[in-house]
Every structure is written in C-alpha cells, then in structure tokens.
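INPUT
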Amino acid sequence: MSTSTLPVFSAAEAGRRRLHARRKRNNVVAIALALAAMAFGIFWLVWILVETVRLGIGGLSLSLFTEMTPPPQAETGGLANAIFGSLAMVTMATLLGTPIGILAGIYLAEYGQRGWLGSLTRFINDILLSAPSIVIGLFIYSVVVARMKTFSGWAGVLALALIVIPVVIRTTENMLSLIPNALREAAYALGTPKWRVITTVTLRSARAGVITGILLAFARIAGETAPLLFTALSNQFWTSDLAQPMASLPVTIFKFAMSPYENWQQLAWAGVFLITLGVLILNVVARTFFRNRI
Amino acid sequence: MAATFPPTPFRREEGKIRADMKNRPPAARRVSPWADVIFSALAHGAAWLTLALLAGILISLVVGAAPAIRAYGLSFLWTSEWDPVQNRYGGLVMIYGTLMTSFIALLIAVPVSFGIALFLTELSPLWLKRPLGTAIELLAAVPSIVYGMWGLLVFSPILSRFVQQPLQATFKDVPLLGSLFSGPPVGIGLLSAGIILAIMVIPFIAAVMRDVFEVTPPMLKESAYALGSTTWEVVWKVVLPYTKTGVVGGIMLGLGRAIGETMAVTFVIGNFNQLNSLSLFEAANSITSALANEFGEAAPGLHQASLIYLGLVLFLITFVVLAISKLLLRQLKKREGLVA
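OUTPUT
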C-alpha cells in the first residue's frame, strides 16, 4: 500500500503520514483525558467518603443515641432528639407522599398515556422533581406555618412529602410502563374490571420497582435540609409531639457545623457520618433488591 | 350445554330432571360499577393534585412577595443595596452569586461529565461499566449537607493553601486576571462554591450524557469505524452531532440543579451581602444561601417579602431552565421514535 520501500518519498506521502500521526495523537490525548475525567469523579467520591468516615467515626458512641443535643462547650451530649425527629418526620412524609405518588403514577401509566392532562402532568412532575427544595420550604411556610402561627413537625412532614411525591410518581410510572400489555389484556379477557387489573395484576408485577422507588425517595428526603429550615425549625430538647418544632439531623448538623465550638463540630461530624451511612446503605440495598427481583 | 345457532334463549325442559351443570344458566355476576369510577377518580385526582401543587407554589410565592413587588417592581433585579436596618432591598448581589457559581460549576462539570460519559460508553471494559456507573450515581446520592460540611472543614483550607494562594501570587500584576484572583484567599467565596457545585452536578450531567450516547444507532458508529476513524473522531464527529440536543438538555438539567442547590453553597460562599469587586475569592451570597440564612429571622414585612421575591425569581429561573431541558431531551427522543 505505502511506497515506503522506495528511497524517495513524495510530498503527498509525507503529508499523509503527518495527518495520520496527528489523528493518532489526538485520539490518544482524548482517551487519556477521558480516563482522567473518570478518575477525577471517583477521586472526589472516595475523598468525601474517607473524610466522613475518618472524622465521624470518632464521635460514635452509645451516648450519641441516648443523650440530647447539648449546649455549646458541654462535656457530654448526643443527637438523640435530632435522630428521632428525623426518623419520625421522614417516615411520616414517606407514608403521606407514597399513596398520592403511586396513584398519580397509575394515572400516568394506565389512564393518561395520550391526552393533554397526562403530558402536562408528566412535564410538571419532571420540573417539580428538580425544583429547589428551599422553595418548597417557602411554600409550606406561607401556607402552613404562617396560618398556624407556629413552626411544627407537621409542616416539616408536609414539606418532605412534597419532595417524595414527584420521585414516587416518576419511578411508579416508569415501572408500570415496563409491564407488557399482554398481561393486562389477559386479565381483561377474564372479565376483570380495570381497577382490579391495575391493583392485582399490573401493580403487583411491578412491585419490586415501585418499592425501590419508595426506598430511593426515603433516602433522598433523609438528607434534605433546606425544606426543614423554616418549617420544622429545630428544638434543643426532646419532643415526640409533631405539633411542636422538632429537631432533625440535617438542620442540627447545619447549626453545629457553622459554629466555632469543638463539641458541636464533633457531634456534627458524627451526624454527617450517620446520614451518609444510612443514605448509601439504602441506595445500595434498593438497587441490589431491584436487580435481584426483576 | 348444546350449542345452537342462532343462539336461542335458555328454556328449562318441562317435566325433566336435569343435572345442574347442564340446565342452570351461570349465575349473573354483579360487578359493581362504582369501584371503577372511584378508582379512576382517585387516579385523576392525584394527577390534578400535582398540577395544583405547582400552581399553589407559584401563587403563594407571588402573594408572599407582593409587598416587595409593589415597592420595587423590576428594579429589584438590578439594585445591589441590601440593608435590613434601613429597610432597603435589592437582589443583584444574590442573583449575581447564583449565576456566577452556577457558571463556574458548569465550566468545570461539562468537560468532566463529557469525559466520564465517553469513558463509560466507548472505552471501559464491560466488567467495569456497572461498578463505575454505580459509583458516579452514588456521588449524586450523597446528601448536600455532607458536601457543605466537607467543603467548609476539609476542602477550603486545602483550596486556600494549594490553589488560591499560588494563583494570587502568580497573577498579581496581570490586569484582568489579577482582579479576578484578588481578595482574601481563605478558601470560601464564589470559587469554592462553584467547585463544590461542580462536583455535585457532575453525576447528573454524566448520567444524561451516557444515556444519550448509548442511543446512537450502532450502525452510524460502525460505519465510521469501518472507514478508519479513531475513537475520538467517532465520538466528536458522529456521536456528538447526533446527540447534541440531548447533551444540551443534560447540561441544562445540571444547570437547574446547580441554581437550586442550597446547603453546599451556604456553607462555603461566605454570606456577604455586598458586591465590591470582580474577585472570585471574595465572600458573596447566592439566592439560596440568603434564604437559608436570613429567612428564619426576617421580620414580617418588607424584609420577608424581599426574601420571598428572591425565592420567586429563583423558582422562575429554575422553571425556565428545566422546561428548556425537558423540551430538548424530548426532541432527541422524538428523533428516536420513542415519543409520538
């Protein structure tokens, strides 16, 4: 093919060789940069996780779960009220938001595949999915807190539920649309009314995916701070009454981390470790559960 | 039962005793019609609730911001004075902070996400694809308060010592860059917030880019390879032009996320309500950090209304960016024939 065996090279040949060399070099540079980008991404994840473990694991002890949030520069203290508040509000919010989300997801997958209401709802849902969570907090403040004239755990629950709903709608709709139509048609052919087809055939087949979506929504709101800042506020003391302002782990971490007190920062790191551990475990469990069941 | 054509109505044969199975018509099953109606109403109602939510958010923001809108009108967007003592407010500092940190975040995140997507679709061996993809998704799952705290207590001292101080020393006398890198190099400010936002936004943009790169028809890529293209040439000249609407849609999705991010930015941006110089090292404020810091203690009246006005501006910007992103991604899907 090439005339390299001849002692004299033409100018075109030399030009072609230069072009090939340049293309090859560009390719190698691009591949190296892509590898570097991948390493860059992994590096940040590893660094953040390592630092969280290193700085947070020292603060882990039984008192973390049994004692209340302390005043600054106190000797002892824990995060018991914050942990309880977070668990209570996140659980209630998931319980509140999931049925609404599943019903709307059922609408999008079973009733609204065509038509303007379905497309509009899908569009609005995707926007609400990525909307700033602090705006949700502002909304609940104007509607609930200003009316009730008090911050409360219920306002925090409502704000978190508003974040759960779009996530559950999206995953439910995706999972339900994956179920083949033949299954539905077989059920219809046996004389099943539509609502029973949806609940006992379609939803039941898709339940692994729907449960995964609920777990992922749970993990997402467990780490949310901004919606709780001016709905549930915070509370130095223990309360199990959702009508009172309630402490929550993210808001407590926010308050403690920005302070100059040593014991508060130590507790904040322990809290960060707990949240990260919980969220990552939930994510990994949800994904492996889904992969094994589907 | 004997089959007859045309079907004759059932008639019990007189005087003869027959087995039930042959004579009795099947018991009529009464299917209650109301169960279907109620279920359908519930499903429709849930969909309407979602729409009502968006409308409710918009209306409550507008109502809450009404005093500030009446007092300032649109000039709120370019006034920079923020004075709670004298009750004079202007949102320019926050809006500039939000836009600038998002711009820095995109500047870093877009090339990196492109590299990650390129690696995951073209270069990585099959056994590495799933773990690396999961690792990038875990980066998205980490709560933003972890980023904020890590950013403030671990990242900013290192940024200050190894990046900001050398940058300041190098560019001290250069005219434009010098003023970009002036200011106290303590590790907080617009640059810090921008870098941390970039790390937060990378998984979103990378995930969308990877998904759209994977829907390129393999035939296009194989034709290019058959003609002797290198991997880079296939991606740059075949895959990217084919998926460019999707790529831009993914970038706008990342932009929408970056604009609305609160906790990570609040920790490291410095919370300073003035705009004194072009410097990236100066403390600043963004809409979300201003809301997070000041709303809890804002006196009802013009202060609170101005903060809600800022929230309204933020929501409108995010709405527009996300709507454009959705339309662009839908455009790509249409080309694929996945959407009517």
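end of record. Chain A is about 75% helix and 0% strand.
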